[in-house]
Design brief:
By secondary structure, this protein is α/β, with parallel strands linked by helices. It has helices at about 10-25, 80-85, 100-115, 140-150, 170-180, 190-195, 210-215, 245-250, 255-260, 265-275, 280-290, 300-315, 325-330, 335-350, and strands at about 5-10, 30-35, 55, 60, 65, 70-75, 90-95, 120-125, 155-160, 185-190, 220-225, 230-235, 240-245, 320, 355, 355-360.
Length: about 375
Amino acid sequence: MHTAIAIAAGGGGDAITAAVLAAAMPELRINAIMSFSWDRFMIDPTPGPRIRTDFEGWVDRGGVAEITSRSRLRTGHSTLPSLSVRIGLPLLLLEADQGAVGLARTITLAANEFSADQLVVVDVGGDILAEGHEPELRTPLADSLTLAAAVQTGIDTRVLVAALGLDGELSPIELRPRLDRLNAFVLRELGAADVMPFDDVWTWHPSEASGMLATAAKGWRGAVETQRNALIHISGDASLVYEVDAPKLADTSLAASVATTTSLDQAEQVLRECRSGLSELDIERRRAAGEHAKALTPTLKSLRIVDDYAAQARGRGADALTIRRVAELLSAIDPSAGDILRRLLARHRPDQFRPPLYTTTSGRTI
């Protein structure tokens, strides 16, 4: 009987969903989860994914770094230590500094350490399916490296994709024909009982796509405004988990272009050439250089801004905002400001504060 390691293709949000799947589907026999520490600007302003030397307190597991509750970034903040407490499985660090080739070595070491003969790559949203030409594609680097590395190990690899389109990149209209070409089938529909054990994660974790997947699994339906003013529609099929043909996907996606890379810089440059000069890391570098607003501390007066904006969003057809969108609106874009915002919303707007969402029905005025 096989044992598996789950690999969160895009980072911490995908790691949460991997943990959900591990608990909901014991037949997968997942005994560890691997993830990048690549938090967005509001959590960690350092561009790009972190590596083990950025951390203190990590544990060596056969040449792979395990992140525990005692691990900390030397500078900045990572969501992985807090997440390690919740997922109930060892949380291992994916490191991109040596490209897909080095990442494949790390995954192989992890498989050896945990006696795994199968890899389960988990992606929420579906951008791992991208071929590179899609106009709204923004963040393919982590997914492409992960998929390329997993297949390169030679270990039996499965790819599970959940919550089609909920990351605001490829739309369900783009994704469904792609799924057909990849011989995809519905492996599981997640329900409330599957996600409710992880409900408390959304009181602090900023992931939008995985959070909306959990909301969909509990039966919520409607339109959600996310970061960058995107409007995402949560429908009945948002909680479906698809399995796709992993080798075929690796050969026909951006993963093929980065398969031989031996550094992060090289992988970034390859994808930049594939995508007419676009690089998600360039956006992070501009933010780190101070081109975006500095974090502000929310106050009671801030809630009036939220009330007004929620009413306007409701008029545009949005039934809810993500908490991340509310934080973006108020420039509460560092961990401490985000914590203060959540406490304010929980205390003064309890009827609307439904992490990871904030509903747009009228709140009490102050």
